[in-house]
Amino acid sequence: VCHTRCVEIRTQMAPRNTHSHTYPINTFDSVRAAATLPLWKNVVFSAAGGVAGAVVVYPLDISKTQLQMDKAGKFRGLFHCFNTIKAEGGMGALYRGLPANIIGIMPEKTIKLAGNDFFRGIFKVDDPSVYPEGNIGLEGLSGGLAGACQIVITTPMEITKIRMQMYKPAPGETVNQMKVLGDLVKEMGLRGMYTGTFSTFMRDCPFSIVYFSLYGIFRRKLVDENGKISSGGALVCSTGAGLVAASGSTPLDVIKTRLQATPPPGVAPYKGWLPTVKRIVAEEGAGGLFKGVGPRSIIIAPLFGIALMVKESLSNAFPSH
What we know:
The protein has twelve helices and no strands. It is mainly alpha-helical. Helix 3 (about 40-70) packs across helix 4 (about 80-90). The model is unreliable at about 5-30 (pLDDT under 50).
């Protein structure tokens, strides 16, 4: 009896393995801050992040669009295009189309970022009692579904932004961006606003799958014991994920841009997703599909980096509890 009792005591006093199948006492704190926000905060923080990122990178975005549409070889690269636009139209030309972008970016980034959190919640991706090490497949699926949902906003936003970016004002014309935007919308009509919906879907879903999968992996490396991440950490994680996702999806972005932009004089319009792929390869070689890969990566990586940094920072500063 004494021997049995001693064994029981030694067993009770023995250190337990704290590294296997154990979770924080307060499981709620280990869940991503953004995933526990009330809906209105998630919407506001997502929109704020989207606007901040878009405003910062917009001059490079307009340069990227004109570079991708440049079949005459006018521009030698992103920064040459940037300087040419500035020289020809002044600083204002670098922000042509920004109002349309801001109008669209708020609901678009809200759907993408808040939608991703919504699907992560459904799949319990951020619950450490279900997935202690995360689940890259479900993270990608959550991002892909959010990307699919956002195209209802992204498609009209992108086509108006691209048309505004390619707009060439007449000599001496003072550009009223809201008037030009209104005229474009009136000219295209509802159906025209959704030109290129399939190409937008084909770009945004794969991008979102790759982006949110990688962001989840990178983020888990830098969170603290409460599952929170610093502003700098969020910037690094989201920028790194954006760099990979943006460069890999460049061919899909080129196809979408060619379908949605008004072609330069003397260039026949692009029609159909597969016919556009074949035409680009036939006229420009396979490398034509990667036109602007550097600029796109330079733009998208910090855009999402800033957007997620702002959202994570606001989520940490104004938590739900």
